[in-house]
Amino acid sequence: MSYTNFKIETDADGIALVTWDMPDKSMNVFTQEVMDELDAIVDQTTADANVKGVVFTSGKSSFSGGADLSMIKSMFTLQAEERKKDPANAAQKLFNLVGRMTGLFRKLETCGKPWVSAINGTCMGGAFELSLACHGRVASNSKAVKIALPEVKVGIFPGAGGTQRVPRLTNTQDALQMMTTGSSLTAARAKAMGLVHEVVEPEKLVEAAKAMIKNGLKPVQPWDEKGFKLPGGGVWTPASAQLWPAASGILRRETYGNYPGAIAILKCVYEGLQVPFDTGLKIEQRYFTEILQTTEAFSMIRSLFVSMQELGKGARRPAGVPKTEFKTVGVIGAGFMGASIAYVTAAAGIPVTLIDRDMEAAEKGKAHSEGLVKDSVGKGRLTKEEGEALLSRITPSADYGDLKDAGLVVEAVFEDRQVKKDVIEKVEAVIAPDAIFASNTSTLPITGLAKNSKRPEQFIGVHFFSPVEKMMLTEVIVGKETGDKALATALDYVAAIKKTPIVVNDTRGFYVNRCVFRYIHEAYDMLIEGVPPAMIENAAKMAGMPVGPLSLNDEVAIDLSQKILKATVADLGEKAVDPRHMALVNKMVDELDRRGRKNGKGFYEYPAKPAKKYLWPELKTLYPQKAADKIDVEVVKQRFLATIALEAARTIEEGIVTDPREADVGSILGFGFAPYTGGTLSYIDGMGTKAFVAMCNKLAKAYGDHFKPTPLLKEMAEKGETFYGRFDPYGEAPKAA
Ligand code: NAD
């Protein structure tokens, strides 16, 4: 029999080598067709008397990324249709559907012939669950091998036997940690945990897998043997009596109960380990069915899996512009941002000319990369040669003439219109006529800056976030005159450096900073009202934000907030800012010299390490506090999410952001907006525009007009519309409000 996605070759010893190699895909993924074929392969190899055992591997450089996004998407669509058509049986049908993979893997592990998985590279999610169902697992010791069950990161959990097999192979604590964090394991770590049997040189992988079968590997899993004992000793042991309360406590501390998928992992393991294996699988299947019906799973999969991939693959790239190959990228300004931009560009294999006012400053910028490379080589993340090659791609210079070959120049000089004007003119005097100029400005509108350019259609904003090496998001800012070639080039560049772009039309603060400052300003309001600072910070984290607003303000600097408020007043007049906010930052910066982490004094105190930062005790004298028990923490949480989501809705209404996927992905990657919501607009869609508008009306009465729902929101609430319905990214062009 021949298969589309698999090749089978049986050797003289009767070992069938099944190679998974999907045509027209860079990575193997589970699709309906893959499962059908795998099912047939299990039948075929089981029935064939010549086959003594099966080695399962991949024909690609990675093993597999797990489930295919189109399959997951179709599951949600099917479920929605079923709920309308046959609500009484919809959940049962979903239950049957999700059981398909579980059943297939169980069939494989009980087929009576030994199966060995030969893991040659990245092995994620369902692919690792398949490997766990094999009787033997061999992994290559290549750096490319990353083993993980990362489902929790997109709101679900390993639902094809993972929650039952992992804690039957390794101790409960490690199993829970692996699944509730979704973190990656190296081959060596997976072996130490008992999740793989052997780790070998890449070229010996298949040979070693075959040897396991030749050496008499039993086609029976440990849990199917009589007298099987759980490696962690089971749930009713003194060790477990210590572990389980702590595990629930830690999960609560880390997630505040916001992630149903993570909680379900604990339940599956705790309940599953008390019953026979097949019953454990049923328990998992039930929880999986339940979790798939949550708003959190739906929204997280949509934003963090589907939309992120689509944006990364250039969903917003103008069609018809040839893909840009970057011979050299110029970076002007080798300071805090420019030095990091040079590093990520060189790390992506692109040569960089790094320019500053003098050679010393340019070299200082390159030294940043030298430090990072040294660190990576020391930690074994880069070889010495790779590190040297990376550094050789960065050429520091003080001569603009060195930019002549650059197809793209990114400017990261001082945030000063005149300095930027000079730089634009100097750069344009030397670069090729078709080269693109990008500014990394964080506050100056692109259209205004482009007025200094002789070719504004080739002028664009590429706004990085700090720390550039870590932050996955880049905002691409389209000015009034920016053309398609500039947009395509900017998106090709962002893709080349492996970041996720969102395309934003020009506005003060663009998208991310507009939202971030709403978050910070709500905290100012709360301080002024007398909400205790600790409550402000904790409630924000309980709402799902990664960093409290006061802590965040300390990081970005309070004097930057002051600068932005002053610039807003200068450009738009006194009424554009809340005078109480102005007074607050003026007091902090001008009177108290509390600028944030950078001068060791802000809303927090920063004692010498290893002591931890703590809230500045005098804040409560500055703003007399109410008793915490007089304040409803649920309302404090709501205020944070609502004020940010409202700002996101405004950016859509104003045509600044045009695609809800970008608002959502940008909010999570840009400032960690409560990921379980799926992002700012999914937060609104998730509760429904009607409920959101009602909530905002209530908040507006109590806390001010900035909570008043916008005309678009009110109209959508009346019509029962969602953002993804009205601004359907897959349908016709977004309708303006
Ligand atoms: P920085 O002061 O650390 O670096 C600016 C660099 O530009 C300095 O090395 C300076 O010597 C150099 N420079 C100044 N004038 C120059 C000229 N005429 N020619 C060549 N080099 C010149 O500032 P930064 O924090 O890196 O910010 C740079 C830009 O990035 C600003 O526009 C800022 O708004 C933007 N930005 C900053 C952040 C952040 O978190 N700091 C985030 C996003 C964007």
From TrEMBL:
Top-level taxon in the UniProt lineage: Bacteria
Membrane-crossing residue ranges in chain numbering: none
Molecular-function GO term, any one: long-chain (3S)-3-hydroxyacyl-CoA dehydrogenase (NAD+) activity
Segments forming domain 3-hydroxyacyl-CoA dehydrogenase NAD binding: 328-507
Span of domain 3-hydroxyacyl-CoA dehydrogenase C-terminal: 509-606
CDD domains listed in its UniProt record: crotonase-like
Keywords annotated in UniProt: Fatty acid metabolism, Lipid degradation, Lipid metabolism, Lyase, Multifunctional enzyme, NAD, Oxidoreductase
Metabolic or biological pathway: Lipid metabolism; fatty acid beta-oxidation
Cross-referenced InterPro entries: 3-OHacyl-CoA_DH_NAD-bd, 3HC_DH_C, 6-PGluconate_DH-like_C_sf, ClpP/crotonase-like_dom_sf, Enoyl-CoA_hydra/iso, FA_oxidation_alpha_subunit, NAD(P)-bd_dom_sf
Reactions listed under catalytic activity: a (3S)-3-hydroxyacyl-CoA + NAD(+) = a 3-oxoacyl-CoA + NADH + H(+)
GO biological process, any: fatty acid beta-oxidation
Family: In the central section; belongs to the 3-hydroxyacyl-CoA dehydrogenase family.
Protein name: FAD-dependent oxidoreductase
